[in-house]
Amino acid sequence: MSLMEDRTGEPRSRLDGHHPLNSIGVERQDFFRCYPLAQRPTEVPGYKEWHHFIVYAPGLRLLVNFNLAEARRAPAKAMGPSELAARLIVIADTGDWQGDIEDYSQHEVAVVPGALSARFGDNAMWFDQGVYHVQVRLRNGAIAAQLRLTPLTQPLLSNHIQLAPGGELSWLILPRLEVNGSVSVNGRRVELNRALGYHDHNWGRFDWGSDFAWEWGSIIPNRPDNPWTAVYVRMSNRRRSSVATQGLFIWHGERFYRAFQDDDLHVSLEGSKLMPAVPKLPRLMGLLAPGTCTGVPKRVVAFAKKGSDEVLMTFTTRSVSQVVIPDETSTSSTTSLNEAIGFVDLSGTMGGRPIEMEGSGVFEFIRS
């Protein structure tokens, strides 16, 4: 199923740069979809929603994720109001990985329905006058950040991507933002002055452990004056023996420029990235998923061709950390979200215009 398809009959975004949603404000698209779940029952369980931010700065990669999920209920409570699980994930790489996952009770969480504003304890994110604001501080003080992220590109929205039977996910992408503010990691303070960043917003209904897996990657140039930005995505079954859809989406400046999808794209995963130790979060989950095998490739090579347009994307993995999630379909298995940092080359020709970009990437690989 193509990312551009929507078999439910509901409105969708065609990821081709011409949908009206691309020309209206971010505030009209990027809002919390289904909160508060705790105030009403849901027909289909397994609702999840998160806002994800990445900061690219010299010597620093920072990942911040504000995460909401519908908590599992006992059968006797199946028709009652849903309970919420709120979680903050903060991970930084400054040469080695630091970070933590923090859970928050419902009385510590406030989210504005239909808007872009959330508080998890003392941590907050909101959108005001065209700028995202993110303020986080882990309870152990290891990482703190105050960020102002200004979108530099048009957003893209893809609704109702089928993951597995009965499961779907919607995805809003803002691939390039200007980031100002500061980050502190173990007492080392990094000032951010026009650094680059990435944001996406995901929501849908699915169970961890169901028959799906994904790969996606944020691709940012090393030089801020380079106008190219890209996002890679590939959806498959859990064993990764069958690919449902894949894409390489490219922006030039603020404008969405080209979508290569499905048969336009040939992807090769080369080798296996080996590490002496793999940092795992939450740390307790390292006991359930020990070892250093991640299933993350050494390289991802994607060759895209559509008409006379040709692009080659290569991602080389440098380092990996894992967020380990207990499966909701089994009590004896887990799903790993492998966060990989590495180097990216993008080259080719589109519309008679050459494309050349050396950059950085943060890729995520779901593995069982």
Short key terms for the protein model shown above:
368 residues; mainly beta; 12-stranded antiparallel beta sheet; 10-stranded mixed beta sheet; 22 strands
Notes on the protein architecture:
The protein has 368 residues and is mostly beta strands. The chain is 0% helix and 59% strand. The chain has no helices and 22 strands. The strands form two sheets. Strands 1, 2, 3, 4, 5, 6, 7, 8, 9, 10, 11 and 12 form a twelve-stranded antiparallel β-sheet that branches.
Task: List strands and helices in order, with pairings.
Layout: E1 47-57, E2 60-70, E3 84-93, E4 97-104, E5 109-111, E6 117-120, E7 123-128, E8 131-137, E9 143-151, E10 156-164, E11 167-185, E12 188-205, E13 213-221, E14 228-236, E15 243-252, E16 255-261, E17 265-270, E18 280-281, E19 299-306, E20 309-326, E21 334-350, E22 353-367
Parallel strand pairs: 18-20
Antiparallel strand pairs: 1-2, 1-12, 2-3, 3-4, 5-6, 6-7, 7-8, 8-9, 9-11, 10-11, 11-12, 13-14, 13-22, 14-15, 15-16, 17-19, 19-20, 20-21, 21-22
| Strand content bin | over 45%
N-C termini distance: 22 Å
Approximate helicity band: under 10%
Average predicted confidence as pLDDT:
87
- What is the overall number of helices? 0
- Number-wise, the strands total 22
Q: Please write the string of helix (H) and strand (E) elements.
A: EEEEEEEEEEEEEEEEEEEEEE
Output the structural class.
mainly beta
What characterizes the major β-sheet?
A: 12 strands, antiparallel
| Overall 3D form | globular
Low-confidence stretches: 4-24
Rg computed from alpha carbons, rounded to a whole number of angstroms = 20 Å
